[in-house]
Amino acid sequence: MLPQAGDPYISLRALLDAGELVPARGWLEQRVVDHPLELSAWDYLGFVAYFGGDYARASEACETALRLKPQHAYALKGLGLCRVKQGAIAEGLALLEQAIQSRPSFADPYHDRIVVLVDCGRLKEAAAALEAAKCALPGHAYWRALDRLLRQRTAAARG
Questions:
Q1: Model pTM?
Q2: Separation of CA 129 from chain center
Q3: Are 113 and 97 contacting, i.e. CB atoms less than 8 angstroms apart?
Q4: pLDDT band at 6, cuts 50/70/90?
Q5: From CA 25, how far away is CA 128, in angstroms rounded?
Q6: Taking 80 as the threshold, does the pLDDT of residue 148 lie above it?
Q7: From residue 80, how far is each of 5, 29, 42, 132 by CA, in Å?
Q8: Is 90 exposed, middle or buried (0-12, 13-18, 19+ CB in 10 A)?
Q9: Are 103 and 81 in contact (CB under 8 A)?
Q10: Residue (of 105, 118, 106) closest to 145 by Cα position
Q11: Rounded CA gap, 19 and 107, in Å?
Q12: How far apart, in whole angstroms, are the C-alpha atoms of residue 98 and residue 136?
């Protein structure tokens, strides 16, 4: 989506494009205080906090987004990834599955679910999840890289 005139997120996107997470987070923390019902602010705050390593704050932002818009696929995906980072793998995978069910055309939760399964050494489950993703969204660019990752990890596991 191209920014429109008067879009308050133009400066934020510039900060994010430059990798400036600290000032972006500061802007977002103020934005959610000033506009607590603005879903985009909570989405972005979850993203920035997650990539800054603050999984607790990212979780809070995702949970707030879900209160504003239940079954919001982006927030479900973000919260799922936070839970995985916090050690709650089963809960994280369940949230990623909810994100898939909420918006089946959104490729990111399929991707993230597969990566989590691979990282946990659950390679057969990852392979099945990848096949399901290919059926749901044929030809998506993610699948080739995930095929490669899964083949590498499977070969390494076999020794």
A1: 0.91
A2: 17
A3: yes
A4: low
A5: 37
A6: yes
A7: 34, 21, 15, 19
A8: exposed
A9: no
A10: 118
A11: 24
A12: 15
| Distance, C-alpha 45 to centroid of its chain | 12
pLDDT digits (tens, 9 = 90+) for 96-140: 999 999 999 999 999 999 999 999 999 999 999 999 999 999 999
For residue range 13-65, what is the model confidence (pLDDT) as tens digits?
A: 999 999 999 999 999 999 999 999 999 999 999 999 999 999 999 999 999 99
For 123-136, b where at least 16 C-beta lie within 10 A, e where not — what string? bebbbebbeebbee
Nearest to 116 by CA among 69, 155, 150, 157: 150
Q: What pLDDT was estimated at residue 7?
A: 82
Angle at 108 between CA 123 and CA 4, to 5 degrees: 165
Lookup: tokens for 48: 């920035």
Residue type, 27: W
